[in-house]
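Holo prediction — UFG.
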Amino acid sequence: MEERILIVGGAGYIGSHTNKYLNDNNYKTVILDDLSYGHKDAVKWGDFVKGDMADDVILDKIFTEYKIIAVFHFSAFIAVGESVEKPGMYYNNNVSKTISLLNAMVRNNVDNFVFSSTCAIMGNPKYLPIDESHPRNPINPYGWSKFMVEQILKDFKKAHNLNSVVLRYFNASGADPSGTIGEKHNPETHLIPLVLDAAIGRRDSISIFGTDYDTDDGTCVRDYIHVNDLAQAHLLSLEWMLKNKECNDFNLGNGTGFSVKQLIEVVKDVTGNDVEVVESGRREGDAGTLIGASDKAHSILGWKPKFDSLETIIETAWKWHQKMDFLEK
Ligand code: UFG
């Protein structure tokens, strides 16, 4: 039987790009997604199974019908504000259902897991850039849910010898340069697609959440990392895990921060369109500056981000965004 990677949440933003990246690199995939947030039209590679990631019957069937060598898990709820309002929903999806998935792996002797974690487990930074040793201090249920799974994975290694790599993304952004897949959340809360919406005229303006942060221009600073570079890190993590049969964790960012105002200027340059800006108050739970240190991923995985300028990242997002707009009409 041909070896496959199971991509849970492969119809979502980062999952669909990783699916393409794996297939472009001659890996075969199976996608499991309930399409509650993902998009069927983003699954253009591999076999697709519609279903819940905690459904034992579906999971056992996949693990029996395919030779799954690793599971990549992208199927989390990600809206920070919503996690504060509905913690039960977040802990159920992000923690309980992940435990069911891990139990199914153990039951079916599948040993390798790559987990999408987040810099949000560190909370407000004590120092910058944020490396893997930074103290953990999540400040919302979303961050806690990811932190809990990180701990659970350590326990599964001890008890069941389940290998895992934890990848902590900074701000995932951009789209595949082909323009065939990209970022499409509903509702959209992320800065880049919202600014592009303003540039294309789908919304009147972009609100800047807070202009009184302790940063050069008062707006929040983030480390934007291209989604295909995250996909590359997943493939390298898989290869590292297959070779070393161990656990590891990596922070994934470009190591450069851009403020909200700087990002809006880049969008104006790339699109050639004006963007109307409304300055409003802070969004609850936002840290002022988040910048990642990814030396560990560079040295151990050999990870080399290809999209290291914000212009290029925005160009790829813009290419997708114009087409996405067209598709939805
Ligand atoms: N922002 C605005 N206006 C907007 C939207 C966002 O000013 O309309 C600002 C935010 O305040 C923030 C920056 O733009 O300073 C980026 O915001 P995003 O919502 O795009 O992303 P976050 O930095 O909030 O990302 C966080 C975590 C990720 C997590 C993600 C979940 O850092 O790990 O939320 O959606 F995955």
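READOUT: DSSP finds ten helices and 13 strands in the chain.
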